[in-house]
Amino acid sequence: MSSGVDHDLEDLEMQVVRYKPEGLDVLCRKSKFTRKELQIMYRGFKQVECPTGIVNEETFKEIYAQFFPQGDSSAYAHYVFNTFDHDRNGSLSFEEFVMGLSVLSRGTLQERLQWAFNLYDINGDGFITKDEMTDIVSAIYEMMGRFSEPMIDENTAKEHVDRVFLKMDINRDGVITFDEFMETCRRDENITKGMAIFDTVL
C-alpha cells in the first residue's frame, strides 16, 4: 500500500474517531432522556456497540441479531436502521440513535405511530403500499423465527397483511395514507396493540 493511501486512511479514521455528539443539553431538549441517561447511553454506545461514535448498518444488524437468535433479524434491522438514519447517509450517529429510542420508548402514541408509519413507508413517498407492508411483516416473521408459537409461515404473513391492509385502506385506492393509518389505529384497538408489538421490537 502506498504511503498516500495510508495517509488518507489515517485521516479518515481520525475524522471518524473525532466524531462528537451534539451537546448533552441540546440532546436533553430534543429527546425525552435526562442528561445522566444520555451520558450512560453514550458510554455504552461507544464502548460496546460502536467505539467510533457512529454505527453502520452491518454493525446495527449484528447488534440486532444478538436479541433475536431464534430467527433472521437482518431484514427487519435493515428497515429499522433506515427509519433511524434520517439523513440517509448509511450510518447512525449517536443523535439519530437517541432520537429513535426516545420516540419508541417514551414518545406519545402519536409519535410512535408516526415512527411506525415511517417504518412501513419504505420508500418515503408518504404512502404505504401492500408490497411495503408485506416486506415489513415478512421481516418481522423472519425475525421471530421458525420456532415461534403459533408457527408462522408465508401464508400467515400474507393473511395478516391482507386483513390489516383492507382495514386501513379506507378509501380503497390501493395505498394507505398517514391519515388513514392514524384513523384506523385510533379506531381499532387490536391493530394498535399489534402495531405496538411489532414497532417496539428494537
How many E strands? 4
Strand share of the residues? Answer: 5-15%
Low-confidence stretches: 1-5, 7-19, 198-202
Structural class: mainly alpha
What's the order of the H and E elements?
Answer: HHHEHHEHHEHHEHH
Distance between the termini: 41 Å
Summarize the structure in words.
There is one protein chain. The chain is 67% helix and 6% strand. It is mainly alpha-helical and 202 residues long. Helix 5 (74-84) packs across helix 7, helix 5 (74-84) packs across helix 8 (130-144) and helix 7 packs across helix 10. Mean pLDDT is 80; it is low at 1-5, 7-19 and 198-202. Residues 72-107, 108-143, 156-191 form the EF-hand domain. This is Kv channel-interacting protein 4-like isoform X21. Belongs to the recoverin family. Keywords: Calcium, Metal-binding, Repeat.
Write the layout of secondary structure elements.
Elements: H1 3-17, H2 24-30, H3 35-49, E1 54-56, H4 57-67, H5 74-84, E2 91-93, H6 94-106, H7 109-120, E3 127-129, H8 130-144, H9 154-168, E4 175-177, H10 178-187, H11 189-199
Antiparallel strand pairs: 1-2, 3-4
What is the gist of this entry?
This protein has 202 residues and is mainly alpha-helical. The chain has helices at residues 3-17, 24-30, 35-49, 57-67, 74-84, 94-106, 109-120, 130-144, 154-168, 178-187, 189-199; strands at 54-56, 91-93, 127-129, 175-177. The strands form two sheets. The chain has a two-stranded antiparallel ribbon. Strands 3-4 form a two-stranded antiparallel sheet.
